[in-house]
Design brief:
Length: 370
């Protein structure tokens, strides 16, 4: 049989700054009240609101409470007290929710003393903890760069991957060469993370490494390499990307086509025309877009044929590309496309016809001065 006289008055204790009784409530629920987790959580929240350093020790104890909500509330309360050292210690507790919350709190406190402890938990078994640690290290800024570069060369696959992600977000150019080295990591998750990070720098030092990565065994690495090469805008990538148009994976072919459109080099025209016949519609769509970007009249007839493609997306982009090219050979086919089954294709065709008309109008009003 449970007997109690009354529930502890947490609001009164808070108003009176009664740290001692709040601490007792956390420990055993109060002198006359059952061991109730809701009451303990209220007491923890109250201690977090008090500007009294005596609240820290009982909050540290609450990190090991039997109830998860109480433990996580203790982390939030310690953050209010800016108690970095207890939060650093909380990165090692058994409860992954507490570790995650502690990492988040340390990032918000922006205390550089937390950098090394946060890098040590980048290999945490829980992905949420690793993500929280990455985000915290990014918030801690420039001072995180060197420890993260060191971690990038460490033994843990999980930590190397997380370090690469953080370095990409930090954006410090000192990370470029270490990330280039990580492109060849034995773990494809790490090399993929390194590729994604390097892409954010848009640094020409990564040009040759990305060209080499087009031959990587992993599809995701090749895809990011192709995206990065298009973004870099260097014509040296044209021929390697043209070769990738014949890759086995359709997603890699698609991204290569898009990259070639970004590079704007006429050497890609004929290979992209061939790609308009790819068996995957998304590759055909990307090739049509790229040809529109290149603006070469050799693409007009092949793009006109694409207006009969079985996929709406391909027909729509082909119509847009023909309008962008501005060649009147496409006018009849674009007029027929006004009756397409897809409203999106009809709209794209109408806009293309308007673009052609505007081009004609400008040509008629051109004045030549002898």
């Amino acid at each position: 049989m449970r007997l109690f006289d009354s529930k502890p008055d947490i609001a009164k204790m808070l108003a009176n700054g009664d740290v001692e009784n709040l601490a007792r409530t956390i420990e055993n629920g109060g002198q006359y009240f059952d061991h109730d987790e809701n009451t303990r959580k209220e007491a923890v929240d109250a201690l977090g609101s008090l500007a009294d350093h005596r609240a820290i020790d009982p909050l540290i104890g609450a990190l090991h409470d039997e109830d998860e909500r109480v433990r996580v509330s203790a982390v939030a309360a310690l953050k209010k007290h800016q108690a970095s050292y207890p939060l650093v210690n909380a990165l090692q507790v058994r409860d992954s929710d507490v570790r995650r919350a502690a990492a988040e709190a340390l990032g918000e406190l922006v205390n550089p003393l937390a950098i090394l402890p946060l890098t040590k938990v980048l290999d945490d078994e829980d992905a949420r903890v690793r993500t929280a640690s990455v985000e915290a290290l990014v918030k801690l800024g420039e001072s995180s760069t060197d420890p993260l570069i060191s971690t990038l060369g460490g033994a843990s696959n999980k930590a190397r991957r997380a370090a690469a992600e953080a370095l990409g977000q930090l954006g410090n150019n000192r990370a470029v060469l270490p990330l280039i080295a990580a492109l060849k990591d034995q773990d494809w998750h790490v090399s993929f993370a390194a590729a994604c990070a390097l892409k954010q720098f848009n640094d020409l030092r990564s040009l040759e490494p990305f060209i080499a990565a087009l031959g990587d065994e992993e599809t995701d690495v090749r895809r990011v390499a192709a995206e990065a090469l298009g973004q870099l805008g260097d014509s040296r990538a044209v021929e390697p990307l043209v070769r990738v148009l014949y890759a086995e994976n359709s997603d890699v072919r698609r991204v290569a086509a898009e990259a070639l459109g970004q590079l704007g080099d006429s050497r890609a025209v004929l290979p992209l025309v061939v790609a308009l016949s790819d068996k995957f519609w998304n590759v055909r769509e990307a090739a049509a877009w790229a040809l529109g970007q290149l603006g070469n009249p050799q693409a007009v007839e092949p793009l006109i044929k694409c207006l009969e493609d079985p996929y709406d997306d391909v027909r729509e982009v082909a119509a847009w590309a023909l309008g962008h090219l501005g060649d009147h050979r496409a006018l009849n086919s674009l007029n027929e496309a006004l009756n397409d089954d897809s409203e999106r294709v009809q709209k794209a065709a109408a806009q293309a016809i308007k673009a052609l008309a505007n081009k004609s109008s400008r040509g008629k009003h051109t004045i030549t001065i002898a």
